[in-house]
Design a protein that fits this description.
The complex is a heterodimer of chains A (about 230) and B (about 600). Chain A has about 230 residues and is α+β, with helices and mostly antiparallel strands. Chain A has two domains: about 70 residues, Ubiquitin-like (UB roll), CATH 3.10.20.740; about 120 residues, Alpha-Beta Plaits. Chain A has four helices and ten strands; from the N terminus they run ββαβββααββαβββ. In chain A, strands 2-1-5-3-4 form a five-stranded mixed sheet, sandwiched between helices. A three-stranded antiparallel sheet of chain A has the order 6-7-10, with no helix packed on it. Chain A has a two-stranded antiparallel ribbon with strand order 8-9. The longest helix of chain A has 17 residues. Chain B has about 600 residues and is of the alpha/beta class. In chain B, the strands form three sheets. A six-stranded mixed sheet of chain B has the order 5-11-10-14-12-13. In chain B, strands 2-1-3-4 form a four-stranded mixed sheet, covered by helices on one side. In chain B, a hairpin with a 5-residue loop joins β12 and β13. In chain B, α1 packs across α3 and α9 packs antiparallel against α10. The chains are: A alpha+beta (about 230), B alpha/beta (about 600). The structure holds flavin mononucleotide, iron/sulfur cluster (2 copies) and FE2/S2 (inorganic) cluster. The site of FE2/S2 (inorganic) cluster has 12 residues of chain A, from loops.
């Protein structure tokens, strides 16, 4: 009894999915917004930020990794789940050094966007102020690990789409960080401005040089509306 | 790099077919020979394997037994588990620091010694214990340390520290260890006398599906902690599409306070191999892997020799017991010092030569596991039990224990009790009975299931070990009345932070926030709102973490808040200045007072 369509509900709305699609893919297709950060279309879902968490048949799971199943009942935009999401986004903010007012990515930053969307004005956890590295050696690209949220989008893009493996993670636990070839600077790697990896970073860690502030702050993606497609609250 | 070292490293890579999935083994061999994996070595390995050097570093930096900086010829790892600390582990560390003239984390200038801390090495029944390269030394006192260092300096041979063997197979010439088995209670199944290979003979007389059915009928559930029904896991693996299937035995035994698998590996390894062959037959796997934690390397030669003997006896290899089409062999995969690699999907990552990151599920290992093939991961005790069930029949096993939790369970009992060691009890045994039998008369608390489990208070000592009450992989740690339980909870939290793989946000970032606030509370600067903060943060971490580590990491704090509330209340002082207890008004004013050259009039110093 193989079916070519799966039907299930998200917050009571009926949604259809193709077999093999995840809950998030089905939601995106149906224009139902699920907050997300580490997911990037075209890559294997990483499932690390946990922001896309939903309750499926009463069980919490990340919608970017969860296959849609016939008859599944998914809760998405509920206070309980949004509270978890706020906590996770707060954690990401305090774990790094996010100097939004002076960050080139401000307004286009997906972390900022999700924070607006969830109604976060200031994180509830204490800032950790870690010391992290920067690398300005490359002629066209600037790397500032202060803002890295360890989402692996660059790791996967460089490896799977650019075929270069410029980036990988080293260390574990709170010491986990993004790294490039041991002993090398970014300028010594194969990284090129035309690589897809350059546009993969959701935050202001991988930045193009010499194009800063081309679009003025105030006119950027998230400046006017928390999330252009569909706001989560209200 | 000198040409010899280079030739050695290239040789090692080629020995493993320059196969990227064997990177664990390659790095391990190079680490042991060269005492570190240098950046040059990473480049060389990467070139041989056709990968990037940052990928090699990614693995090297994940496992605590691998090092980028040169280590001493002798690495002394002092176990800093809670139980070891209770029995003088900190004094032992300090004695080594004094005798070697270095601090923990350092290497002597002559390159002879490195001193490190390491979490639970599976010797809680004979703490404090240390690892000297692969050699285990147990029941240490600070007073012995100067002489030990002197012997090491004179001989350069860690084995010279072992003057008395620990009994049983620990005396075997391929082990020669002072480790003791401390078997205190031989129950009806695992530690009872039995006929060798009877389970395997029985299995091959049956159809594989019927072997699976037997295990289901027996009601066997995984002994590694999660308690998943073993027969069901086997059925999924058996039915999954694919010709190549794997059986992996989880011998990572990393949960602090657990050491039962160590004893089974030492004394019942033939039983384990028998169980693995039964499992291979049942699920249709021809390849078995034992993932052995790096801390148990002292058993490796012994285990390899038994595998070799079994191959000769026709109990491993092709046509086992003369049965056409029944081929099954086992290889040992050594771990590298990472607790997370006990989690089954992280374990598979590690076997594949990757960082020990858990994998995204679904797909589950039964569908897509090692190298993408259907894989069943089972604990050592589970697989030993399988052979016993086949031997005696499902009904005989099911008759033991309770109606919901069949059979027996091995418990690793340690801490403040007279007779720490291994106890085989039928399921349904109460904490009272366990405490009585191990000689603990005045316990303030019992930690069931290790730090990822529950701190139980005396009012609940009538609770029982079974899947519907206190479900556990088997760790039972007893704390006497004089212990500072909350400090201990904090030490366990540190363990989880240290061992988190760092993949997901809540476990990587949230646990650190948890520890910070918990320290404030311990220091007496917390009030009710801080406890609420801990409970809420703990709930988020538990609910949103990607794997069992993060989901249980806050349990030491959460279960003490739930069951030992008076200990927290005793720490709360009523603030005397109308501020939140965690806010230090005098500290905040200090700089301003210095500038103004006078003390505050509104908040005058009382001391
Ligand atoms: C952080 C973590 C560590 C674990 N460590 C072990 C271990 O050391 N040994 C073990 O058998 N299972 C361990 N497990 C459980 C395994 O994931 C898995 O459930 C088990 O190996 C399956 O075997 P079983 O069904 O026979 O118990 C661990 C789980 C987690 C989440
Ligand atoms: S650099 Fe950007 S893309 Fe890469 S892991 Fe960090 S946040 Fe993600
Ligand atoms: S919960 Fe912890 S150990 Fe598990 S995947 Fe997340 S970071 Fe890694
Ligand atoms: S978007 Fe799903 S976990 Fe990050």
């Amino acid at each position: 009894m193989s079916k070519d369509k799966i039907t299930f509900t998200i917050d009571g709305c009926e949604v259809t999915a193709q077999p093999g699609q995840t809950v998030m893919q089905a939601a995106d297709a149906a224009n139902i917004r699920i907050p997300q950060l580490c997911y990037l279309e075209g890559l294997t879902p990483h499932g690390s930020c946990r922001v896309c968490i939903v309750k499926a048949n009463g069980r919490l799971d990340t919608s970017c990794t969860l296959p849609a199943v016939e008859g599944m009942v998914v809760e998405n935009n509920t206070e309980e789940i949004n509270e978890y999401r706020r906590d996770l986004v707060d954690m990401l903010f305090v774990e790094g050094n996010h100097i939004c007012p002076s960050c080139e990515k401000s307004g286009d930053c997906e972390l900022q966007g999700v924070a607006y969307e969830l109604g976060i004005t200031a994180p509830k956890y204490p800032y950790q102020f870690p010391r992290r590295e920067t690398d300005a050696s490359h002629p066209d690209i600037f790397l500032d690990l202060n803002r890295c949220i360890l989402c692996a989008r660059c790791v996967q893009t460089s490896r799977d789409l650019d075929g270069k493996t410029v980036f990988e993670f080293v260390g574990r636990g709170p010491d986990k960080k993004l790294a490039i070839r041991p002993g090398a600077r970014l300028a010594d790697t194969e990284l090129d401005i035309t690589d897809q990896v350059v546009g993969s970073c959701p935050v202001g860690t991988i930045l193009k040089k010499r194009v800063g502030f081309a679009v003025p702050v105030g006119e950027r993606t998230y400046d006017k509306e928390p999330h252009p497609e569909q706001p989560v609250s209200e | 790099m000198n040409p010899e070292a280079k030739a050695f490293m290239i040789g090692v890579c080629r020995e493993y077919g320059s196969d990227r999935t064997r990177l664990m083994d390659i790095v391990r061999r190079i680490q042991e020979q060269e005492r570190h994996v240098s950046l040059e070595a990473m480049e060389l390995i990467a070139e041989e394997l056709g990968i990037e050097s940052v990928e090699v570093r990614s693995l090297v930096s994940f496992y605590s037994f691998f090092s980028e900086k040169p280590q001493g010829k002798i690495v002394i790892r002092v176990c800093n588990d809670v139980v070891d600390l209770m029995q003088g582990g900190a004094e032992v560390s300090r004695a080594f620091e004094a005798a070697l003239g270095i601090l923990v984390g350092q290497t002597t200038a002559d390159g002879k010694f490195t001193l490190e801390h390491t979490p639970c090495i599976g010797m809680c029944d004979q703490a404090p214990a240390i690892l000297v390269n692969h050699v285990v030394c147990t029941r240490l006192s600070a007073a012995q340390v100067p002489r030990m260092v002197e012997i090491l300096k004179r001989t350069g041979d860690p084995q010279a520290l072992v003057t008395q063997y620990g009994g049983g197979n620990n005396e075997d010439e391929r082990i020669r260890s002072m480790v003791q088995n401390s078997i205190r209670r031989e129950g009806e199944v695992l530690l009872a006398p039995r006929e060798a290979e009877a389970g395997l003979r029985q299995a091959v007389a049956m159809q594989p599906e019927d072997v699976v059915r037997s295990i289901k009928d027996a009601g066997l559930r995984g002994c590694g902690g999660a308690g998943f029904p073993t027969g069901m896991k086997w059925e999924f693996t058996r039915k999954a599409a694919g010709d190549r299937k794997f059986l992996i035995c989880n011998a990572d035994e990393g949960e602090p306070g657990t050491f039962k698998d160590r004893v089974l590996l030492t004394e019942k390894f033939d039983l384990l191999c028998e169980g693995m062959a039964v499992a291979g037959y049942a699920i249709g796997a021809q390849e078995g892997i034992i993932y052995l934690r790096g801390e148990y390397a002292y058993l490796q030669a012994f285990l390899e020799s038994i595998l070799a003997r079994r191959r000769k006896e026709g109990l491993l290899g092709t046509e086992i017991l003369g049965q056409k089409g029944f081929d099954f062999d086992i290889r040992i995969q050594m771990g590298g010092g990472a607790y997370i690699c006990g989690e089954e999907s992280a374990l598979i990552s590690s076997c594949e030569g990757l960082r020990g990151d858990p994998k995204t599920r679904p797909p589950f290992p039964a569908q897509k596991g090692y190298l993408g093939c259907p894989t069943s991961v089972n604990n050592v005790e589970t697989l030993c039990t399988v052979a016993c069930i086949l031997e005696r029949g499902a009904d005989a096993y099911r008759a033991l224990g309770t109606s919901q939790s069949a059979g027996t369970k091995l418990l690793s009992v340690s801490g403040d009790c007279e007779w720490p060691g291994i106890y085989e009890f039928p399921f349904g045994v109460s904490l009272h009975e366990i405490l009585q039998e191990c000689g603990a008369t005045d316990a303030q608390a019992v930690l069931v299931g290790g730090p990822s489990g529950t701190f139980v208070d005396p009012a609940q000592f009538n609770r029982t070990i079974c899947f519907s009450d206190l479900s556990t992989g088997g760790a039972v740690v007893v704390f006497g009345p004089h212990r500072n339980l909350l400090r201990i909870a904090g030490e366990y939290l540190d363990f989880f932070i240290e061992e988190s793989c760092g993949y997901c946000t809540p476990c990587r970032a949230g646990t650190v926030l948890m520890k910070q606030r918990f320290e404030e509370v311990l220091a007496g600067r917390g009030n009710q709102s801080d406890l609420d903060y801990l409970v809420e943060l703990g709930r988020t971490i538990k609910s949103t973490s990607r794997c069992g580590l993060g989901q249980t990491a806050c349990n030491p704090v959460l279960t003490t808040i739930a069951n030992f509330r008076p200990l927290y209340s005793a720490l709360q002082k009523a603030p005397d200045d109308n501020h939140k207890a965690s806010f230090d008004i005098y500290g905040a004013l200090r700089d301003h007072e210095a500038l103004a050259g006078r003390t505050s009039e509104i908040f005058p110093h009382t001391n």
